[in-house]
Fold this sequence. Notes:
Layout: H1 3-9, H2 14-22, H3 36-54, H4 56-61, H5 73-87, H6 89-92, H7 97-111, H8 119-129, H9 138-151, H10 162-167, H11 169-193
Amino acid sequence: MNHLAHFLLAPEDDAGRAGTLLGDFIRGSNLSAWPAEVEHGIRLHRRIDAFTDTHPVLIEARGALPTNLRRYAGILMDVYFDHLLIAQWTQWASVPLSDFADEVHDALARLAPTLPAPADRVAGGMAARKGLMTSATHAGMARMLAHIGNRLSRPVALDQALPALIDAHSTMDHAFRRFFPALQAEAAAYRADSTLRTRPSALSVNR
């Protein structure tokens, strides 16, 4: 899942949101150097990614993409699913989308100076550009896919795959509506079962 879904499923405090963002940057299994709530956010991010990557509904949906794009299916579907999440927001969240996005962008602006590079730059840029809303439009998705493609070890013009995603809209929409309730339940269960909060919880994420 892309950023909007991750933040929707994450704890609604700065520490949880820091961990959610850091899930894309921190490697390794030993996270004990991080405050408990930050570690919890990182591990929840990983749990969401693993659940998404292996879910049979999404594995089946990847077949709707042309064969030459399937190696990038995870990236492409993550971006398109944020597009669908924005379009269907009132079905999945009780807070208005504009309020939620503003709250997260404000949190990222506060957190950016405390985060290690390159997460600090991503947080600051996302806050400045109101990045959670980028996938709302086709043009925004194209920009996001182009940006992601340029960051790959071998750059790929992923924005050129957008027409194929749009052509597969019906399949993607059906898959998202089947999958997202299961993902919400998985994230809620992980948050309820976590024992990480037994460690000190002070937010200090400079590394």
